[in-house]
Amino acid sequence: MRSLILVCLLVSATMAAVQAQAPAGWKLRIDQSTSPSDPDAAGSVKFTTSGAGLHAVNPQAATYWSPANRATGAYSLKANFTLLEPSNHTNYYGLVFGASGLDGAQQRYTYFMVAQDGTWLLKQRMGENTPTVARGASAAVKKPDASGKSTNVVEVRVAADKVDFVVNGTTVHSAPKSGALASTDGIYGLRVNHALNVQIDQLGVAKL
After folding, report:
1. Which of 32, 84, 118, 133 has the fewest CB atoms inside 10 Å of its own CB, making it the most exposed?
2. Is the pTM of this model over 0.70?
3. Hey, is 21 helix, strand or coil?
């Protein structure tokens, strides 16, 4: 019990320290690296409005959400992600859906992301556990061009019996709406891992 209380206090302190950096109505939660071989960069996470969209500069990994953003039933969740400069190694960015408890130790969500090397990743978050559901590579995932930028439209399509994971209009993975994907109702948002500089535009949900 004492350990759980300590975790909750640390989460609350971290959340309070960074909320002032988020656009109005948004929250963020930082996940600091615990890997000596893959440390975080120096500096603080910056999450701001940029034009009609959002801009995330992430020395550390972070999850971003607005409690008002919820999706239920059959829906399409989509956003346009522009990687503004290559990371110094493979790191993922993308969508969070079916989320709950994001403020606390019992956070839970599923996230679908892409990376600059042309791969995609589907994972779950259950407290501090992050099991991989599926992963792969696809020519649909755009890599940085000569300018160092790449733009990918990342989408999750939730139907009554299946969930499709789509990049730039191409379905890269499809799975039954059961097991790890049985729960898709909840808050939606964004996940940007460390060492990334990403612009996010046109984040939204449409009923299917």
Report:
1. 32
2. yes
3. helix
